[in-house]
Amino acid sequence: MRLIPQSIKWMLGAALMLIAACQSAPMQSTAAPDVIPAASVSQAYTLGSADKVKVTVFGEPELSGEYVVDGSGNISLPLIDSLQVEGLTVPEFQKLVEQTYSQGYLREPRISAEVLNFRPFYILGEVAKPGEYPYSNGLTVMNAVATAEGFTYRANKKFVMIKKANSTEEIRVELTPGLTIQPGDTIRIVERFF
Amino acid sequence: MKFASRLISDAFRDITMRLPVIILAVSATSTTAAVAQDSFFERNRYTSVAERPQPEYDPVPLRAGAFDVQPQLGLDAGYRDNLFATENNTESDAFVQAAPSVTAQSTWSRHSLRGRLDATSVAYAENDTENHTDVRGVVDGRLDLGSRTEVTGSLAAESLNEPRTAAARIANAEEPVQYDHTRAALGAGHEAGRIRLEADYTYQQFDFEDVGLIGGGIQDQDFRDYDEQELSSRVSWAVERDWAVFLQGAYVDRSYDQVTPGAPNRDATGVIVRTGVNFELPNLIRGDIGLGYQSFDFEDQSIEDLDGLSIDANAQWFVTELTTVMASAQRTVQDSGIINSPGTVVTRLAAGVDHELRRNVIIGGELGFENRDFEEINRSDDLITIAAKTQWKLNRNLWMNARAEYLDQDSGAQPFSDARALVGVTIFP
Question: Is the C or the N end of chain A the one with fewer CB within 10 Å?
């Protein structure tokens, strides 16, 4: 986190305005920039610890980059203090960054963000390859089982045990084709006896 | 291809529960390893509960050069409530049983050689005259002449004790009758496209020891000694990859060492012809069913021929991956062991189920019916057997077994019922 005195911020802002007046191609255009599409980001996905986010600030390559949400749900970006982003959707995060940069650092910042590395999910029990796998948007339990190379011959296909990331207990859930999971979930496929 | 049939044996010394799955798997594949992957006669689509390997719990054989060697020791304690298989005044007793064995199996990519030596020693708490030890040794091999032709050979020698439930049992014998059984077999098989040809020659010799009688005297058993030769062949045609039809024929020659004056000459020759189907269908069923006709002609022309239906069938139904149901049926002509009966028609029906409750826990049940219809004497025995069993594999070195069995024989000559229980462990190095 970088702390810049208020006077310096004003001077930078004035300098930027001067440069902008001299350039034929303004640094901060009022036209909508080419936003990098976020191919796999869901409106419903919320940021959490260990998420890796790519932030692109239009016209500011020094401010653009890939950043990781830390264990306390904060993300550190150049020029601004650590931001609390836990639980924010990607659009909400984009808006927060824009608001923060516009407070004395940038004029009409244009921010695009995409999650590069979702928090993984965990699957264990009666699957061929239990382990940790990357999450993707809209993942269902059946998708997760397929990722783990399928059920074993002893798997119970009627219900599964799921432990949410922020929970300490498993819940038993009927296994349906549309049952979705969230990043950080731990799925346990139980054994059947008959 | 023959599948192991879980017939309930009079010999409570059922060591098949002790065999590591790896040994069963090796035995099952040893007769088919010569066949190429695109064979019309390969039957390995399904895996039964008993066949399924469990690497976490199956013993790891010792490597000795090009052989995998698997020693094991079975230790059991049991109880029987009718030791002498009598109708009245039954005698119950507890016993302990030790069953060491060692099996060596070659690991060559072509050909196969397997040797096994095992013994079962039983000691009773009160009736020590019934104590006995059975010893068995077998060597069998397969020579692969190309990918579709094989020659097989087998040599076996056993020193056994006849159970008191046997039809030929002697009520006042002071101990079980001992006998030696030797067997030599030679076979060949060849596949050509959809056709498979098989031929086998088997020679067996049975030699019974005289037995002492309670109160004095010796009961001669030499009249029971006999040799048997069987020459059989089978031609199969694979209609589809899933099933094949076959025609099977066998010639049997049974010759007794001696003819007792006043008793019939039990020497016989027999012809067996069967046709049937061998299959492994997509609907989870695998089997080999043969039906036909058998005719045994006795040297003594005064003895009526034994002829009639011949059956040799077995099937497995893979209900689920955790449950396998087995069924088998046989109808054959065998030695009766009784001096006045030249032979006996034996009809066996058996059904069983194995269920894999956990990867290391198998439970099962068996139901059997056996009818022995004796030639020339007015005797017909019906034996029903019901059994429940479980096997708990603790780890690769220690398994636990338990079995409960009930036998009930309806017979004009030897009716009895016998309840048995057995618990024990099998130890692997």
Answer: C
What H or E segment, with its residue span, contains residue B23? helix B21-30
| pLDDT confidence tier of residue B24, bands split at 50, 70 and 90 | very low
Sign of CA dihedral A35, A41, A46, A47: negative
CB spacing of B355 vs A194 below 8 angstroms? yes
Please judge whether A153 and B355 are an interchain contact, meaning their C-beta atoms are less than 8 angstroms apart: no
Average per-residue pLDDT for chain A: 79
What single string gives the DSSP state of each residue in B57-101? TSPPPEEETTEEEEEEEEEEEEEES-TT--SSS---EEEEEEEEE
Residues 121-180 of A with CB under 8 A from B: 153-154
In total, the C-beta contacts within 8 angstroms joining chain A to chain B are 15
Full-model pTM: 0.79
Residue B217's φ and ψ, nearest 5 degrees, are 100, 165
Which residue of chain B has the CA closest to A191? B358
* Ramachandran angles phi, psi of B30, nearest 5°: -65, -30
C-alpha to C-alpha distance for A2 and A81, rounded to whole angstroms? 7
Q: What is the ipTM of this complex?
A: 0.78
Strand locations in A70-169 (E): 74-77, 80-84, 111-117, 121-125, 131-133, 159-163
